[in-house]
Amino acid sequence: MSKTLFTLLLGLASVSAFSQTIIIRNPDIQQMVTEVSSDSLEQYVRDLAAFESRHTLNTNSTNGMIAAQQYVLSKFESFAKKSNGRMIAKIEEFIIPSDGRRIENDSPAANVFATLKGTDPSDDRIFVLSAHMDSRNKNVMDKDGIAPGANDDGSGTAAVIELARVMASREFPATIVFVAFTGEEQGLKGATYMSVKAKEEGWNIQAVLNNDIIGNSESSGTLIKDNLKMRVFSETIPVAETEREASLRRYTGSENDSKSRQLARYIKEVGERYVDQFEIKLIYRADRFLRGGDQTAFARNGFTAVRLSEMNENFYHQHENVRVENGIQYGDLPEFMDYEYLRKVSSVNLASLASLANSPSLPEEVQIDVRGLSNHSILVWKAPKIGKVKGYYVLMRETSSPMWEQKFWTTDTTLTIPYSKDNYFFAVQAVSESGAESLAVFPTPLSR
Questions:
Q1: Pairing between strand 389-398 and 406-410?
Q2: Closest CA to 213 of 145, 107, 295, 117
Q3: SS3 helix, strand, coil % of the chain, rounded to 5?
Q4: What is the pLDDT of residue 22?
């Protein structure tokens, strides 16, 4: 064999080895993922759709929103029995002030919660899994017309219920809140109420995973059928960004490294690790074009929040009255759902949520040394305040890459790597003794 051919084959072998992906799954999380049931999800969706209307302003206590809230509460309460007292379910009532648009008069409303208390008394972190349970017709003010809301957002509410069922009997160091909001279609009312309260009371909410329209795999118009992909929306420039934060962002070129963007990357990596044959697409905007969701209310109040949604929406079955027109069945009916697809999206949520709740808190004071010119990059940080740490990953990617491409392991709180900060972006993750990774922290400059 010639030396040139040997060198070429060696090079190809190196490329092949570099491209290999090692998948290591936590067996406890993997077991939970296997327990997510498409049959259970379908039952929840059909039960929710059976209420005539879940419109926020519908006050029917036997077949409307109030009855639906009691249904969700009853599910949470039944799961709480397996939690050894750590899960508490409740309905929190509040008043939505008249806004002159979609709330004509001051109106009663309520959010339904299940709080799974963390096992570490020193860990005050909260991770929120949310969806909205209210539904609507074409006319958003039609509070009495039939509005099944199977996919929008019975699907998200079903996922919240199912994950509460699977996770209630498990233990996590941090607290998880499962919540079904009211008033999303009337202007994010339930999420706004909770996020404002959380900000005023100083809740340590680390991440909000909001699920809205996650149960359909067939698009209208283009007729695409695909149950192999989902979307995660994340804001680029934080809506609550301060002027100092804006100045630092411009200085470091970190427009693509908001906390919500780091959460989206985390969901993609962890979700694809645990859910086979499923791709998570990162959408670089806060929500669909000119539209919004409950994650927006949390972002406005400075919390890290993303929206999880199906890849291909079907607008025949969204914000439409139930009817047949020109041979087309309109309306958000449960028979148009893909429950295996809903299981996959729910499993992505579970894997991400369980990993986050098991992880240490963020590494502190993450910095990159800029005190001298060098083709090496030096990162320094301090240990997290919460959780036992086995080590850290220093993450690296090219500036044009959407995802972190390499991970460098260390048990120290500093690492020097032979890659220029001019050409790459970096971040640091803390890793627990069980292997759970924290969210990534983008470094600030260490200039003196």
A1: antiparallel
A2: 295
A3: 30, 25, 45
A4: 84
Cis peptide before 153 (omega within 30 of 0): yes
Q: How far is CA 70 from CA 46, 91, 189, 333, 356, in A?
A: 16, 8, 19, 21, 29
Class of domain 364-446: mainly beta
**Helix (H), strand (E) at residue 430:** strand 424-432
User: What per-residue confidence (pLDDT) applies to 11?
Assistant: 40
Nearest in space to 441 (alpha carbons), one of 368, 359, 366: 366
DSSP string for residues in 213-230: S-S--B-SSS--B-SSEE
Largest separation between any pair of C-alpha atoms in the chain: 85
Using DSSP bridges, classify how beta strands 328-330 and 323-325 pair: parallel, antiparallel or unpaired: antiparallel
Q: In what order do the strands lie in the sheet with 406-410?
A: 406-410, 389-398, 424-432
Instruction: Report the length, in residues, of the chain.
Output: 448
Residue 132: how many CB atoms within 10 A of its CB?
31
| Unique residue bearing structure tokens 């639906």 | 68
**Which residue ranges of the chain lie beneath pLDDT 70?**
1-19
Annotated domain spans of the chain: 27-358, 364-446
Contact (Cβ atoms closer than 8 angstroms) between residue 267 and residue 352: yes
Helix (H) / strand (E) containing 244: helix 243-252
CATH architecture of the region 27-358: 3-Layer(aba) Sandwich (3.40)
pLDDT at 19: 58
Nearest CA-CA partner of 175 in 124, 211, 130, 131? 124
Whole-model pTM over 0.90: yes
